[in-house]
Amino acid sequence: MLSVSKAWRHFRELVLMFALKTIFVALISLLFIHEMDAIRNKEWEMIPLLNRMDDNEAYQVFLLAHLPLFLIVLSLLALSSGSVQTFFFYIFDGMLILHTFVHFIFRNHYLNRFKRNSYRIMYGIGGIAVIHLGLTLLLNS
After folding, report:
1. Are the CB atoms for 58 and 45 separated by under 8 Å?
2. Which of 18, 35, 43, 89 is the most buried (most CB within 10 A)?
3. Distance of CA 12 to the CA centre of its chain
């Protein structure tokens, strides 16, 4: 029979895991929205190499470059568990935090077309990724 403290720890772990996965799905959703916004704002114009291409060609490269990213993210979400998923959470959170930082650095770029709502999404992703990373570390400590 489980003691009260073991039952509480198990319950806490289940709640944290549910929160982690829910926050992760929210991050993926926000990332999808951001990438749609990035296409609308022609983000490729600020990316070295892509900014030297014809606009339509750069758009296609930018779009196709995201296919493997989304394939990996969605596959790992659906198919991984345990330590593989935890490792993936660390990598994904780090990538989102770095991505947010890059957008912060390029916020004054002369070809930057992002507006206030775009930055709310981007900075929201970075903030939520920090929270998700903290919960992942808490759950695995």
Report:
1. yes
2. 89
3. 25
Report the C-alpha gap between 31 and 96 in whole angstroms.
Answer: 9
The pTM for the full model equals: 0.86
Asked whether the beta carbons of 133 and 23 are under 8 A apart, the reply is no
Q: What pLDDT, in 10s, does the model give residues 2-30?
A: 687 888 888 888 898 888 889 999 999 99
Helices 116-139 and 82-105: crossing angle in degrees, nearest 10, is 150
> What SS3 string covers 32-100?
HHHHHHHHHCCHHHHCCCHHHCCHHHHHHHHHHHHHHHHHHHHHHHHHCCHHHHHHHHHHHHHHHHHHH
95 within 8 A of 104, measured Cβ to Cβ: no
Alpha helices in 4-54 (DSSP H): 4-40
| 3-state secondary structure (DSSP) of residue 109 | coil
Compute the distance between CA of residue 14 and CA of residue 16 in angstroms, rounded to an integer. 5
